[in-house]
Design a protein that fits this description.
Blueprint: H1 33-52, H2 56-69, H3 74-77, H4 79-96, H5 99-112, H6 116-132, H7 136-149, H8 160-174, H9 179-183, H10 191-210, H11 214-229, H12 235-250, H13 253-270, H14 279-289, H15 297-311, H16 319-334, H17 339-353, H18 359-375, H19 398-412, H20 416-423, H21 435-454, H22 459-479, H23 481-498, H24 502-519, H25 522-538, H26 542-559, H27 562-584
Length: 585
């Protein structure tokens, strides 16, 4: 068979006249409509053979010829052939990387198809393509169209009162269910129910940046469908979203975590092979909002890394994959990952994202800013910290994300007034499910203790910040001792030191250092050593001060922070000079 010349341009078309009867322009009236159909069928059959052998450029060439050969009233006269041609065209264009052409073909298909059964695959693919191109608003609206055609009633918006009512209805119906009941749910077999859950799961991804509160409605609906019809690969997301809703509405982290973990267990054990496309979304929501409060943060980070790596192997990378990747980097920074390794990991993700200005890329850029600051020996001015809330447009809760980074940047730079200023902007802890909010409160409280010691700020205000932070850290440590107990000890040590309770401070500093070490928080181990060294300097125990400052310097060096290694070295020189002078005197 002779081959035509195939253009690299997605919208080009060359007539395959040397192989198949010349296609007929739809704008030219031809009395012999059958000639159109014969040409379309021949082109379609050849395209199908090339598609089956993965020769996508040739398949694209012939299926476009098939589409152009169809007569003007082809949907009325040759419905099935029209449906097959445009479905093949969308898949071939997709395989060739011509996403706009694929979406256009799918939109023709959705207009021309008569039944929802014929539209389901087209709806699903067009949403997948829109999400991969960060067109969340259009993807969200497309999901609503699909669901409404399937008989679902979707509210325009959801307010807290309406969500509480949905929660009460669900509690009345299924409040008696225990873990065993959930895990023994049958597999769903009703195709309509499974497809409905599929669209809800896609809608959930789009809703993240379009209408976040709608995720709770989606979680309720996915749970309801799973309990009525059985579980499928889309059910895990419903469990997790419903669990997040419980925590947000009631503050009951334990119940929410247990239910979310059941969802992840169903995902991993019953649908592991068939649900890999769902893993990034399920893991992102569970490990970011729920598990991080109960499991070591490094484990949560590793599983988010797994979700990222699995997600980027997909033909159309879901937004949740890169969001998982950015959250993995964020949690690794909180967990004390070596800053050079952190740079390597974030650079890899930035390279994959390329030139697109996605929410994940802007989040990574902010993390990179913090990492660069810590890795550099020179202290930047605030005018050099160029990322603003406006530049983070598209990131969920971008104000909180920026507040967290500005707080920890200010803290590590030793700008404690700015640290408390930025930390004050973070929502109260009960209003945020993010571990970043807890960490922000921790660093803000340490800064407040420094300001109390300087005597330049209102001690009552600073003391309230500290006591509130200790309360929050204790509550967090009760859920996850591994991640938060060292923070409790360090706050208690600093407060005892401020109150001149030196014996209590010594014990608490030692506990803070040992727990940070056992948790792998090299940066917070260094911080505890530094704070202990400064405390012993203030009370005149210069030998102990030098010992702890040397340990702090080593920890910061292992962390990869030139900024803190240099700062401690300068402080150590002062203490050595004081000790030398004391010895000489």
């Amino acid at each position: 068979m002779l081959k035509g010349t195939v253009s690299n341009q997605p919208n080009s078309f060359h007539s395959p006249s040397s192989v198949i009867p010349t296609h007929i322009d739809n704008n030219v009236i031809n009395p012999n409509a059958m000639e159109h159909i014969v040409t379309a069928e021949l082109n379609y059959n050849v395209a199908s053979k090339f598609m089956s052998s993965s020769n996508f450029p040739e398949a694209h060439f012939y299926v476009k010829a098939a589409a152009k050969s169809l007569p003007g009233d082809h949907w009325r006269t040759h419905y099935e052939l029209s449906r097959q041609i445009f479905w093949l065209l969308s898949n071939v264009a997709h395989a060739c990387g011509f996403v706009n052409e694929a979406i256009a073909a799918l939109e023709v298909l959705l207009i021309g198809c008569e039944s929802m059964d014929d539209k389901i695959d087209a709806y699903s693919l067009v949403v997948t393509l829109l999400l991969s191109r960060h067109q969340s608003v259009k993807a969200y609206r497309t999901c609503i169209n699909a669901l409404e055609e399937m008989g679902e009633s979707i509210p325009e918006t959801m307010h807290r009162e309406a969500i509480l009512q949905m929660r009460e209805v669900m509690k009345t119906k299924y409040g008696h269910f225990c873990e065993k009941d959930f895990l023994s749910l049958k597999d769903a077999t009703d195709e309509k129910a499974i497809n409905t859950m599929m669209f809800y799961s896609q809608m959930c991804s789009a809703a993240r940046s379009v209408k976040p509160m709608m995720q709770y409605f989606i979680g309720c609906r996915l749970m309801e469908l799973s309990l009525n019809f059985g579980v499928c690969k889309y059910s895990a997301l419903g469990f997790v979203q419903y669990a997040i809703m419980i925590v947000d509405l009631t503050g009951n982290y334990k119940s929410g975590y247990r239910l979310g973990k059941i969802g992840v267990q169903i995902h991993n054990e019953r649908f592991n092979n068939s649900a890999k496309d769902q893993t990034p979304e399920v893991y992102l929501n569970f490990y970011k909002a729920l598990a991080v409060h109960f499991e070591p943060i490094q484990i949560c980070a590793d599983l988010l890394s797994k979700a990222f790596k699995l997600g980027i192997t997909a033909i159309d990378v879901p937004p949740a994959a890169f969001l998982s990747g950015a959250q993995y980097i964020e949690m690794s920074l909180i967990g004390g990952m070596n800053l050079s390794l952190l740079k390597h990991e974030s650079d890899f993700q930035m390279k994959l994202l390329g030139s697109e200005n996605s929410p994940s890329k802007m989040h990574l850029a902010l993390i990179q800013e913090t990492r660069s600051l810590l890795s550099s020996q020179e202290v930047p001015s605030y005018s050099e910290l160029g990322i603003t809330e406006e530049s983070l447009s598209g990131i969920e809760d971008r104000a909180e994300v920026l507040t967290y980074h500005r707080t920890i940047q200010s803290f590590w730079l030793g700008r404690y007034s700015r640290c408390t200023y930025h930390g004050e902007k973070m929502p109260e802890i009960h209003q945020s499910l993010k571990v970043e909010a807890i960490v922000t409160m921790f660093y803000r409280a340490i800064a407040a203790l420094h300001l109390m010691s300087s005597g330049k700020h209102q001690k009552v205000v600073m003391r309230n910040i500290v006591h509130r932070a200790i309360q929050v850290m204790e509550e967090a440590a009760h859920k996850c001792n591994f991640t938060f107990q060292n923070k409790v000890y360090l706050l208690e040590a600093e407060l005892a030191a401020h109150q001149s309770k030196h014996k209590r401070a010594r014990v608490a500093y030692n506990d803070a250092i040992s727990t940070a070490r056992s948790s792998g928080f090299i940066h917070e181990q260094g911080l505890a050593c530094e704070m202990a060294g400064l405390h012993y300097k203030r009370i005149g125990d210069l030998k102990r001060s030098m010992t702890f400052l040397c340990q702090a310097q080593e920890c910061y060096f292992r962390w990869g922070s030139k900024l803190k290694t240099h700062a401690v070295a300068v402080e150590l020189e002062r203490v050595v000079a004081m000790q030398t002078k004391k010895f000489l005197d």
